[in-house]
Specification:
The complex is a heterotrimer of chains A (about 375), B (about 280) and C (about 280). With about 280 residues, chain B is an all-alpha fold. Chain B is about 75% helix and about 0% strand. Chain C contains 13 helices and no strands. Chain C is globular, with a radius of gyration of 23 Å. Classes of the chains: A alpha+beta (about 375), B mainly alpha (about 280), C mainly alpha (about 280).
């Protein structure tokens, strides 16, 4: 059953349909939070579909954690409304929202055993004793800690504590799960392992997840959609591929993966592409931002989209000549730092497979080329960027 | 980082200083503890006056303490005061500590300072003021008056102790509890309180000891009918002195000692189980 | 999640404590202080009296002198004690802390009484001194300045030792080690390096001891003589014997002002948090 969710209408596409579309699990409308003169969150709109995994991605201070806190009820929005399954969330205090939350530092109660920790939300809901025991055992099984009930949190490793925190947050079957950088305190290998665990749980439980991280790789691996936060606003929200190949702003382009940037002005528009004039001459790029003639623009090209060669034979829409100033060997790829004739420094990423007829060395003159479709013309960001 | 780096040996002046210092420490230790030990010993004396060393062993002074209505009555009054005092001070102090730790408002520092003020203002001033005012309120010479006065004096201790513990409790634990469905009261009862319990008990013990030992304020607001044992001691010391006072002093001392040990044990236990 | 404290639903929890303290602490204290200017009639004559009549001036002087000497002796005895505590093995430190804590937790009255027993003419100290031949006859050790000092120093020693210890234990050993490698003799090392580093503790402890002894009542009353009257005893006398609330209020004002000024000075110089830490 396809779970692809159309951003605009939040309808479940494909598979058996109910007579009426189910309301999205979570709706945020015009959410805004100020602390005195500081605007932490500036008009966030979002719809989270049933069973969807959306990640809030952004640098620290970009408002993603504050937004999460507001959904949980630990902070009150200054403006805006929130709906859970179609019902208003704002008047409810956190202990009546029935939303599960996993914290970065696990927040396991140190004076209770693992079992008591996990049983806690069920006790708060006055679930009868035997059912509590059964469900705690089941969920501990689910997270891979079947006999750990009698241990105390301090006796567990970081990864195990995180699983207990997860178990505790899902045992009462909430419709929505919030996760605030839960893997931040773990080392790389463990983090990757836990990412897969969380994705597996998400699939098995079909719960909607709102995940906060500053690690773009994590976001790319785990999410159905990513919302990139920049200085309190969502610059772009969409599936990973969309964000990566067609970023909407300079910030998104720079935050998710690497980009080379050129300042240019639009000279002509031809359907999906446009012509621009930059410091290094004419350029052709994909007009993602709907720019018009005369508009100031920033052209972004990913390093891996640029072809580097010493031969003059290949032709591209865009080409730049320059000199190699640095080469960084990365094992499966190679990074070239090239100083173009016009003075701009560019990064080119080349995969290390295949035979290179001629190795490029430092100081060599090279030609860089890329097709118009592989570059994105973006609007100039007037706002000060975060991070 | 307390150990001093090794100083080159053979410097005899240095060694002389070191010996002098250790001598001072030993003498100081004796100076601090010996008087109490002596009082303890005298309380078991078989002689009717305060001679040391006592000629023989006897429990007569403790018996006197229990039999003599004057002494026993005052001891009872002390107990009747310290129990409600400890409960009230701990209750109000803990509530205030929690309120201060989980709220912010302009002037919070001033309020905190105000609640600590009884520690700063010289006791004699509090005593004199309370004496004057209690007479107007009709609290002079009453049990209630003593309880209120003692509570006022002990709240700062509870506040300081519990506040320190609250500062260490991870705020996210309470957040987590709330998101898991705990009402604020349940959150306090099931999560916060167990974690600060050692500090609360410590505050309770503190309050009991201070109330039991309190003299200056009690002196002003007591009467021969309603007086704690410390006031009784005071009037006896300046009148006909007998070793019963030593027995009373020993009781006071042992009470403090037990409380100190209990607090020590509780703290050790809580640290072992991961509490604050 | 770095965020300010949650919405203030818990403010009311502070109310009972504040209320009780307002009515039964702040009000009585202010009532007394006010009496200084209203009893027997409006005006500052009580303050004038205090500063003019020799008997009151003597009391003020006694108070400051006794407090000063107590502070000095506490420092002389307390510094080596704190130093040893900070620079010894764990066991010795634990033992010394306990030794200092026990009297600290014991009632003032008990400790003062203990000294009464020890210092009397037939008391242990006199017996010992006569016994070993230092004295011919028992000497008056009590009801005089000596008795007061002996008692007060023992009682206030913990207030010097603990703040001092808190500072000393944080002094990094590498400072004195470095000085030694640079050629400083042990004495010089101590005077020029260690002592200045310990100064905050010295100031805190000294101020604390001084402030507390200013307001002391029990110990000077039981161990002192007629010429050792301190301000607290004078306040008591004015109220209990003469009913002179105005004068008592004036003396209270002086005592309180002096206490607060010294505390403020200490806070400025050193910071008052070390007081709460034991």
């Amino acid at each position: 059953m396809s779970r692809a969710v159309d951003n605009a209408t939040a309808e479940v596409v494909g598979g058996p349909r109910p007579t009426e579309p189910a309301p999205p699990t979570l709706e945020l409308k015009g959410i805004r939070k100020v602390f005195g003169p500081i605007v932490a969150v500036d008009r966030v709109d979002l719809e989270l579909g049933k069973g969807e995994f959306v990640t809030f991605l952004g640098p620290s201070g970009s408002g993603k954690t504050t937004t999460l806190a507001m959904v949980a009820g630990l902070q009150m929005p200054t403006e805006g409304t929130m709906l859970l399954d179609g019902r208003p969330l704002d008047p409810l205090p956190p202990y009546r929202r029935n939303i599960g939350m996993v914290f970065q530092n696990y927040a396991l109660f140190p004076h209770m055993t693992v079992a008591r920790n996990v049983a806690f939300p069920l006790e708060m809901r006055k679930v009868p004793g035997d059912e509590i025991r059964r469900r705690v055992a089941d969920v501990l099984d689910l997270v891979g800690l079947p006999d750990y009930g009698d241990r105390y949190p301090r006796q567990l490793s970081g990864g195990q504590q995180q699983r207990v925190a997860l178990a505790r947050a899902i045992v009462f079957r909430p419709p929505l799960l919030l996760m605030d950088e839960p893997l931040g305190a773990l080392d790389k290998k463990l983090r990757e392992q836990m990412q897969l665990e969380i994705m597996r749980l998400h699939r098995d439980l079909a719960v909607s997840v709102l995940y906060v991280t500053h690690d773009q790789e994590e976001a790319l691996v785990m999410s159905d959609r990513i919302a990139v936060f920049n200085a309190g606003r969502i610059d772009q929200i969409g599936p990973a591929q969309e964000l990566y190949e067609r970023p909407a702003t300079k910030f998104v382009s720079g935050f998710l993966g690497e980009s080379n940037f050129f300042e240019a002005t639009v000279t002509a528009c031809e359907g999906e592409l446009c012509m621009l004039e930059g410091r290094n001459g004419p350029m052709r790029a994909f007009n993602a931002a709907g720019l018009a003639c005369g508009d100031k623009a920033v052209v972004a090209v990913r390093p891996e989209r640029i072809h580097i060669t010493t031969a003059a034979s290949e032709t591209f829409d865009n080409s730049v000549t320059g000199r190699v100033t640095d080469i960084i060997y990365l094992g499966q790829s190679r990074k070239y730092v090239v100083r173009a004739e016009c003075g701009t420094e560019l990064t080119v990423l080349e995969q290390s497979f295949g035979i290179r007829r001629h190795s490029i060395g430092i100081g060599e003159e090279v030609r860089l080329g890329w097709q118009g479709e592989e570059a994105n013309a973006l609007a100039e960001d007037m706002r000060k960027e975060a991070g | 980082m307390g150990t001093l780096a090794a100083v080159p040996p053979g410097a005899s002046a240095e060694r002389w200083w070191s010996r002098a210092r250790i001598l001072v420490c030993v003498l100081a230790a004796i100076y601090l503890v010996a008087p109490l030990a002596i009082v303890l010993i005298i309380s078991f004396s078989s002689a009717p006056f305060l001679t040391f060393p006592p000629p023989g062993f006897s429990l007569q002074w403790y018996e006197n303490l229990m039999r003599n209505p004057m002494w026993f009555g005052s001891l009872l009054t002390s107990v009747k005061v310290l129990v409600p005092t400890a409960i009230l001070a701990t209750g109000m102090g803990t509530a205030a500590a929690y309120g201060l730790a989980r709220t912010s408002f302009p002037g919070k520092a001033a309020v905190t300072g105000f609640l600590m003020a009884p520690l700063v203002v010289p006791v004699i001033i509090v005593a004199a003021g309370v004496f004057g005012v209690f007479r107007k309120f009709g609290l002079y010479g009453t049990l209630t008056g003593l309880i209120i006065a003692h509570t006022v004096l002990t709240i700062p201790y509870v506040l300081a102790t519990v506040s320190a513990a609250l500062a260490v409790v991870n705020r996210q634990l309470e957040d987590a509890a709330l998101t898991l469905g705990a009402t604020p009261w349940n959150c306090f009862r099931r999560v916060t309180l167990p974690l600060i319990l050692p500090a609360v008990l410590s505050g309770l013990l503190f309050a009991m000891v201070i109330s039991f030992d309190e003299l200056v304020v009690s002196l002003f607001i007591s009467t021969p009918i309603v007086r704690p044992v410390t006031v009784q001691m005071w009037s006896n010391i300046r009148g006909d002195v007998d070793p019963t006072i030593a027995a009373v002093a020993t009781v006071l001392f042992l009470f403090s000692l037990c409380a100190l040990l209990a607090e020590h044990v509780a703290r050790r236990h809580s640290r072992a189980t991961g509490h604050v | 999640m770095a965020r300010p404290v949650r919405r203030g639903g818990y403010g009311w929890l502070i109310a009972p404590a504040v209320g009780v303290l307002l009515v039964f602490f702040a009000y009585p204290v202010f009532w007394l202080l006010l009496r200084s200017a209203t009893d027997p009639h409006w005006g500052m004559q009580n303050f004038v009296t205090v500063f003019e009549r020799p008997v009151y001036l003597r009391v003020l002087w006694n108070t400051v002198a006794i407090s000063g000497m107590t502070t000095l002796f506490c420092l002389l005895i307390g510094y080596p004690l704190a130093y040893t505590m900070a620079n010894s093995s764990e066991r010795v430190r634990r033992l010394l802390v306990f030794v200092v804590l026990i009297p600290f937790w014991t009632s003032l009255l008990v400790r003062t009484f203990a000294w009464m027993v020890l210092l009397q003419k037939q008391g242990l100290i006199n017996e010992v001194l006569v016994g070993i031949g230092l004295l011919e006859r028992p000497v008056a050790l009590i009801y005089n300045r000596l008795g007061v000092l002996v008692g007060m120093v023992q009682i206030l020693l913990p207030f010097m030792v603990f703040p001092l210890y808190a500072v000393l234990i944080r002094i990094d050993g590498s400072f004195t080690a470095a000085a030694a490698t640079l050629g400083a003799t042990p004495v010089r090392n101590f005077v020029r390096v260690y002592l200045p580093l310990s100064l905050p503790g010295v100031l805190t402890g000294s101020t604390l001891v001084f402030i507390i002894s200013l307001g002391y009542f029990i110990t000077p009353a039981l161990l002192g003589g007629a010429g050792d009257l301190m301000i607290a005893q004078m306040i008591e006398r004015q109220i209990a014997h003469f009913g002179n609330w105005g004068l008592a209020g004036a003396l209270a004002v002086l005592l309180l002002v002096l206490t607060v000024l010294l505390l403020a000075a200490m806070h400025r110089l050193v910071g008052v948090r070390t007081v709460w830490e034991r």
